[in-house]
Amino acid sequence: YGCPSMDEIEEFNNVYKKKLDEVGEQGHIPRDLAIE
């Protein structure tokens, strides 16, 4: 419980980016879409 550590945040970001890249390669997300 509490705030996640930097390692946990970095791991989440890496997994999330990998999923976004996979979906992007399939053409479900436009390549020029900016995510904020």
Automatic annotation (TrEMBL):
Lineage of the organism: Eukaryota, Viridiplantae, Streptophyta, Embryophyta, Tracheophyta
The name this protein goes by in its record: Uncharacterized protein
UniProt organism field: Nymphaea colorata
Classification via PANTHER family: OS07G0155200 PROTEIN, OSJNBA0006B20.18 PROTEIN
Superkingdom, natural source: Eukaryota
